[in-house]
């Protein structure tokens, strides 16, 4: 049996779209890599997003691994700022309901 560590991206900039990590986020990623460096990781996966990849990269480096890109790990929607947030949230609610229909 394997053990899976799920790490959410580190602190990101407060920008719409695909923001990068803040300086604090980079520090968080480095600290997480240090914490996970001795657990015997055999793979590190990440979405291609600018907040996820730089979170995963130090973890993979500390474990002597390459980050494996998996586009399925992206959010189902990502607000890019081109539309009002209210419209995005209304669309999000519809997608959220549709994505859970199979559970009932």
Largest sheet descriptor: 2 strands, parallel
What's the architecture of the largest domain, going by CATH?
A: 3-Layer(aba) Sandwich
Fraction of residues in helices? 25-40%
> What is the terminal-to-terminal distance?
30 Å
Q: Give helix and strand order, one letter per element, not per position.
A: HEHEH
Class from secondary-structure proportions: mainly alpha
Calculate Rg over CA atoms. 16 Å
Number of helices: 3
Give the strand order, joined by hyphens, for the main sheet. Answer: 1-2
Global geometry: elongated
CATH topology of the largest domain: Rossmann fold
Q: How large is the share of residues in beta strands?
A: 5-15%
Number of DSSP E strands: 2
Oligomer: single chain
Which runs of at least 5 residues are low in confidence (pLDDT < 50)? 100-104
Average predicted local confidence, pLDDT? 84
**Total domains, how many?**
2
Identify the CATH homologous superfamily of the largest domain.
Phosphoglycerate mutase-like
Tell me the name of the CATH class of the largest domain.
Alpha Beta
């Amino acid at each position: 049996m394997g053990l899976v560590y799920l790490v959410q991206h580190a602190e990101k900039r407060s920008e719409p779209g695909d923001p990068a990590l803040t300086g604090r986020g980079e520090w968080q990623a480095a600290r997480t890599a240090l914490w996970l460096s001795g657990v015997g990781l055999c793979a590190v996966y990440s979405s291609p997003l600018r907040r996820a990849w730089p979170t995963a990269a130090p973890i993979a480096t500390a474990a002597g691994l390459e980050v494996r890109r998996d586009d399925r790990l992206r959010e189902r929607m990502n607000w890019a700022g081109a539309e009002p947030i209210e419209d995005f949230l209304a669309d999000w609610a519809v997608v959220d309901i549709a994505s859970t229909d199979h559970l009932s």
